[in-house]
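Can anyone check this?
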Amino acid sequence: ETFVYRFKVQQSGTYWYHSHSGFQEQTGMYGTIIIDPARGNRIQADRDYVVQLSDWTDEDPMTVFAKLKKQSDYYNFNQLTVGDFMRDVSTMGLGAALDKRRMWNQMRMNPTDLADISAYTYTFLMNGTTPAGNWTGLFKPGERIRLRFISSGTQSFFDVRIPGLKMTVVHVDGQDVEPVTVDEFRFGPGETYDVIVEPGDDRAYTIFAQAMDRTGFARGTLTPRPGMEAEVPPLDEPEWLTMTDMMGSMAHGGMGDMQGMSGMDHAGHAMSGGMTKGMNPVHVRHARTEYGPSVDMRVDTPRTNLDDPGIGLRNNGRRVLTYADLHTIGGPLDERDAEREIELHLTGNMERYTCSLDGLEFGKSTPVHFRYGERLRVILHNDTMMTHPMHLHGMWSELESPDGKFLARRHTISVQPAQRVSFLVTADALGRWAWHCHLLYHMDAGMFREVVVA
């Protein structure tokens, strides 16, 4: 069949398209869309390359999903061992080590569960090319190069750096931002980042994008001459989730509270970097639908700061981009204050491999209603131990700081574990829209909601 779609192009920048039918996105049905500004790019470059990152499996995606439903940690080969327990005993003492292991067992969670699907089935691709294939972009020393990074992974967050080169982020989700120079950035499925690099030496540079769980990487090369390659850095050591990542008070499924954990020694869980900030008390209310088999935990003391780069990137010796660094040029599209607020909790049960919003998987939930033309504040509260890139179709999400100041215009916002973020939306698009986690298997597991603008 052939369909013709006509729509008015109202923005410029780096975007992408993909299938929303079944698991077709996982099988490679996606591509790049670049819309040139009518008056040219604000920041000019001598060369312009798309760097589209993705993950590929030779397995049938339906088989992958079935395995996750049967055993959610099927692809996690970084399981805890007796050796890990003995290391905890040596550093924390026997009692604290036992309490720590008991805590994770009671939560039915695994501190090494950073990604549902790992390099044990995935190959990470750069522009459709394997690390061995080594996608290559040419340059002349002294040139300014624009790299349009697109995260098209179905289930993977990538940490991107180019050893030997600083990257200046100038464009996020298709929107110009105040330039910020970094060594590394993390982005999740759906997000796009344009960076400027200026290699001055007559040498090759490796574009290195390692998966958040550190099981594999995508790799390419910038080089002045074909055939030249740079050293590929080793993968960083994986970090484990700790109670630091979940911050304060929690309730777990039917457990109610952390009984038996009061005596646990948290000496090994000191908060680092941005994790010590953004802990202003927030009155949290959980919907009645969160108290059921589809939810294995609830966060009662979320963090609101946006200056934490996330697990595996804190204090790594590199300058890492955070959401707090992003400032869209030109300010918000709509200067009005919010007329009302909508709060949604990102929920799930990893033992059952269910994902949901307010404890309701898609099919059990009712649509979220926006009034046409209204300005509203949306609050997303992550009650899980995984980061979720949340994507609202049809309307911009204007991210704000914890004190309510406009930061960046986004179409996809990643919410870290135990984090609470807010953004403003102008409901200027009539009709029915999708709102979902951009981790494909989370979306299919139920983290999807219909939005109706009328």
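Reply from J.R.: I decoded it. Helices lie at 61-70, 82-92, 94-107, 243-246, 440-444.
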